[in-house]
Amino acid sequence: MKSVAAAAATLALATSVTARTFTVVNKCSYTVWPGLFTDLNVGPAVPSQPTGWEQKSGQTISFTVPDNWKAGRIWGRRNCNFSTNPGPNSCSDGGCNGGLLCDKHSGTGVPPATVAEFTFQGDGNQDWYDVSLVDGFNIPMRVDNNKGCHIADCPVDLNPNCPAALAGPKDSSGAVVGCKSACVAGLGDPANSPNCCTGSHNTAKTCPPSGVQDYSYFKKGCPNSYAYAYDESSGTALWTCDSSKAADYTVTFCP
Ligand SMILES: *[C@@H]1O[C@H](CO)[C@@H](O)[C@H](O)[C@H]1NC(C)=O
Question: Which segment of the chain is annotated as a signal peptide (predicted)?
């Protein structure tokens, strides 16, 4: 009896030591509806948090992510109203299949959206993470951690000065609330595009940043973001943190 209790206590301790804490902070002046997607193709473990929620300006929430969580993403949705036809069009941008709760299998978020991406225990037993602008930008974002690993971020609001061909959608007052990547904006032939790194441009070598329209608008504004499909060459796109450190992460909207 005693030894079973002791074993259970040890197990509980081991679990609490290895689970990660994620904190999401909304410092925007507006409500954000975060989405949280787990890539179930690479592992079944899911965080303790629902796949979508409403987070008012100034609110902070925390949840646990099991250490065997393999990969997923967090992003923000703007100007949502789920009362009719809940789904991808319930928000100005970032909306997902499902509604408030993003669908577990297909609820990844409608571009343009700034996306925090995570892979745990990836190559080299590293956490790999980034703030991706591959699908464009909608909300400034920062990912930091409690183990001294590098910050990934796009702290600048890229909406107001977004190049005209990429700007939008707009909110009901006409303000730009999203800035599409050239790929998402559909500039050029999507099947063979230097913006999307498709067709004859589908390798790092044949899809240099110089071929991506307005790459520098995104990368100069947000040097620590992952600004196009092969942005590893910048050296400031994709970040790692030794998985054995079991870092906790904080995702801040409008840092
Ligand atoms: C949400 O949409 C419904 C239906 O269009 C509308 O009646 C309601 O006022 C909207 N709510 C908000 C908070 O805008």
Answer: 1-19
Mutation test of ligand 1: which of 30, 56, 83 has the most ligand atoms closer than 8 Å to its C-beta?
83
Q: How far does the centroid of ligand 1 lie from the alpha carbon of residue 30, in Å?
A: 17
The pTM is what?
Answer: 0.92
SS3 163: coil
Whether 152 is in a domain gets the answer: yes
Please tell me the distance from the alpha carbon of residue 200 to that of residue 139, in angstroms, as a whole number. 32
Q: Whose CA is nearest to atom 6 of ligand 1?
A: 83
- Residue 14 domain flag: no
The two tokens of residue 28 are 């925007």
Q: Which residues pair with 116 in a beta bridge?
A: 74, 131
DSSP H or E stretch at residue 72: strand 71-77
Q: DSSP assignment, residue 209?
A: G
83 lines ligand 1 (CB under 6 A): yes
The total domain count for the chain is: 1
Q: How far is the CA of 252 from the centre of ligand 1 (A)?
A: 27
**Model pLDDT for residues 174-193, shown as the tens digit of each residue:** 999 999 999 999 998 989 99
CATH of the domain at 26: 2.60.110.10
Mutate which of 79, 80, 81 for ligand 1? The one with the most ligand atoms within 8 Å of its CB, which is 81
Task: Write out pLDDT tens, residues 135-145.
Answer: 999 999 999 99
